[in-house]
Amino acid sequence: MDFHSNEATNGVRMSWNIWPSSRLEATRNQVPLGCLFTPLKQTEGLQLVEYSPVLCACGAALNPWCSVDYYLKTWGCPFCSARNAFPQHYAEHITATTLPTELFPSCTTMEYILPRSAGSGSNPLVFLFVLDLAMVEEELEAAKESLQQSLALLPQNAVVGLITFGSNAYVHEVSSQAMPRSYAFRGDKEFSAKQLAYQLGISAKKGPTLASMADAQRFLMPVSECDLALNALLGDLKSEVQAIPKRRSWRKCNTPVASMEQAELHRPQRCTSTALSVATALLEATCSQSCARVCLLVGGPCTTGPGRVVGEDLADHMRSHRDLERDTPQARHVKPALSHYAKLASRAVDSGFAVDIFACCLDQVGLHEMRPLAEKSGGYMVMSDSFSMNVFKDSFLKMFECDQYGYLKQGFNAKLEMFASRDIQCCGAIGSLASLRKRSPLVSDTELAEGGTCLWAMGSLDRNSSVAFYFDVAIAQASSVLAGKQSCLQFQTNYLHASGQRRVRVTTVACRHADVHSNNISLGFDQEVAAVLVAKYAAIKCDNEDAGDVVRWLDRMLIRMVSKFADYRRDDPTSFNLGHEMACFPQIMYHLRRSNFLRTFGTSPDETAYYRTLLVREGTLNALCMIQPALLQYSFDGQAQPVLLDSRSLKPDVMLLMDDFFHVVVWRGEKIQAWFDAGYQDQEEYANFKALLQTPAIDARQILSDRFPVPKFVQTNAGGSQARFLTSKVNPASECQEGMAMTLMTDDVSLKVFMEHLIKLVVQCN
What we know:
By secondary structure, this protein is of the alpha+beta class. Among the domains are: 3-59 and 107-116 and 406-519, CATH 2.60.40.1670; 125-242 and 261-289 and 291-351, Rossmann fold, CATH 3.40.50; 629-730, Severin, CATH 3.40.20. A hairpin with a 4-residue loop joins strand 21 and strand 22. Helix 14 (547-565) packs across helix 21.
């Protein structure tokens, strides 16, 4: 089966392209019945029309799988079986040879530009920047420089505002360059939209928007009108680190310290949670349900306010995974902070805007606690060591890239609704979205992640934002009711385009059910999507369950799935054979077990939150790259060629390029590094060696330019301190020949041992 054509046309890719005919059969398959959907994917032959879709009473849109009565001028909905009359302008011309665009078999994805209703206002792009001042001067200068560069990239009609914070939060007026003013808010409080509107002097109004944009011109203005004032304001901002008072007496410190100087060291006061509360309230009061996003630039942990994650004393250590598991005193701030940021996330979802988090610090900043805020609202999350590194600088500026028409490559304030045939039920969705708790017969009693609904909110989405859907079959026992029949799914993505237009993208796909007791269901198995669906579900389970239990659940699922579909004789491992449709699935599961999504050893809670957030957000290819990184080999033999992610690939006379989505690593073998140290690349007779060194660097730059967030670039060699980025990912094969490849010392079993044990357990199953 061609699994990629449906994705290229509709942005949909399913784990099982032949669906089971009963819930029992779907359960026995072990791997979830689901799909990955990319709402704004650049699809082939997308039809863009300037009128509203034709809807059934159930809400589903006209599509190629509808039955048409050309005599009565009616159409039958494949989801609720209702008959609907065509609109007059459709009915006048429709015949068997003259069909509207929606009924063409090739037009399974349509995008409608909705006409503006009378009295509806414009939807300007709104970017509210929230900048941390409790950083050292060098970091603050780098952050300000990126902010100033972003102003030049934004469309001139985009509306911007600025909030800064340290010990207190400040809302700055951007309307005056001569005498700018700012309004201070205490750093230990939380603010509602009405409180903020009153204190800022914004008049309250009825309706979904408390105040119009005109009332907030002092704080939110188009870039073309305030760029000079905002640049001047940014230039005058100073770091608050120097003004932080020190502890006067070391005796007040509960933890023993080596010296008085050590006791005097404090973390700066940083009210991140209050600043986000003020930003949320400002957008609620001025531009609710518009194209808006909050961009947080933070350089350290929150130490004051309702969302604090650590105390000011350096003796108060940041929580670790062990602290979270055992609920130690270091983790005492976690639950209150999670509750606070969850409330802010709900407010952002209700108002339809996204919250982006750009965290740059060598230590943790509290991404573990702030994760729901970015994830539920559909915002971006980027983590780096410094604001001066390309991981932040390039990622931040890439967010403002425009298409060939001058519009940002983003959608805003989206609502994603799903319709399905009566024999299919939705258990839930995983992605950067939030449930709106809309019930329908489509909703399954089994809830998973953002479940219990057929309607979700996405504050922001781009062309890579993907959602994983998980389904149940409504028929409990095997019967001939569904055998060989076809079921349909429809996704309606209602969003604000960067131009301010309201658009609806309708995607309808169909899939047939397998015959009762048929074995051909494995022919429709897409092992890549199946692995990604399992990985996203496992990452979500790890948030509430012990990682070890999740790994054991993963192993049981794999054993049962392989034992069902493999051919073998009982107690004879040599007879084992797994079809090519599923041959790579166990290997991907092996790398998933070793990944940072399930394994927390050696990582902080912030790193784990960052990795899992990007996993649930990305599509098939990017998620697979995270689970099982791509490895390319460069040698004198010819062009780059893909090689196994195996320690046997770490040869002394080659160069390797590894891409795990978060890092791009260029690795040199021992001989290559020795020749480089000898300076052969600078000699004319070794031009081929110079070209070999440059080739992987060129390919790495291409990856860095195309990826968001921008990966960290690492250049290392065999035995180098940063070679761990590569050696921790490869399969530690035990049969490396001395002098031919590296032998890795690790406690992990190799892929060969893993497969031997899997086969042994499978052939022993009853």
